[in-house]
Amino acid sequence: xxxxxxxxxxxxxxxxxxxxTPHVPITVSEIVDDVLKVADIGITMxxxxxxxxxxxxxxxxxEIYGRIIEGIRKYxxxxxxxxxxxxxxxxxxxxxxxxxxxxxxxxPDMGSLTLSSLNFNATASTNSPQMIQDLARTMLENxxxxxxxxxxxxxxxxxxxxxKKGLLQPPFYFNLxxxxxxxxxxxxLNAGVMINDLPENSFWSLAGIGxxxxxxxxxxxxxxxxxxxxxxxxxxxxxxxxxxASNSALxxxxxxIAKANEREIMSPLEFxxxxxxxxxxxxxxxxxxxxxxx
Length: 294
Description:
Elements lengths: L6 E3 L18 H14 L3 E4 L1 E2 L6 E2 L2 H12 L6 E4 L9 H4 L13 E5 L3 E2 L4 E2 L3 H14 L2 E6 L2 H12 L7 E7 L9 H9 L5 E7 L3 H12 L2 E4 L17 H14 L7 H7 L15 H4 L1
Parallel strand pairs: 1-2, 1-12, 2-5, 5-6, 6-9, 9-10, 10-11, 11-12
Antiparallel strand pairs: 3-4, 7-8
Helix pairs in contact: 1-2, 1-8
């Protein structure tokens, strides 16, 4: 029997705006509603980006993340929640780490950790070695699991380095993102090399940027991996870019492809168990290692 399919849902991102697509959720209530809608269809986890309520621009503020998390957990308490710690818009550690200090019922289970600096089409995501290690250490100390973002094979090697330093602990979860202009391109060779180089005890999902989203998701489903999917990575439903996607439509399509490949969807509870995340009611994140408690 094949491993159940991890669906990592990315509803918003930092780039899509209402001018680009009316379907992108921006406000707290829109994001919560979209997450709850697709959770009813079936997802494993959600990768959240928060937006400022005044101008819709990305924000790092834990208060806004807290409101989103609260709204989701009111109805979907088991859903695994990851907060973005992106370096694309924010350069200071105190900004990027802010959501990691949410506590109690607002504590995120996971936080994104991009494993090197990289260039996008028009902007850069700056991730110095010190920043990456400081974010990893903070997550380790707070019992939050890194969602490891790798855009090329060198980033996977850096994750192994962090594990040797004790800053990452297994089991690991990787998002392998292909198709960005300055990184690994979205083809079978690059995907296979990256998957083959993952450390032991790793779970992984494939993501494709833009038109590559459907191709990479399909490859992942057929080859036993998970998927990262949502408007964050592609606002279009079709390759001809004549039909804008809704998040619900993207998730329904993943279910159709999964069914054709005889892949069942991994529940949030099963993923929690596999990643050593808390399964106790009202408790979130990973239990702190004994050496950090003492």
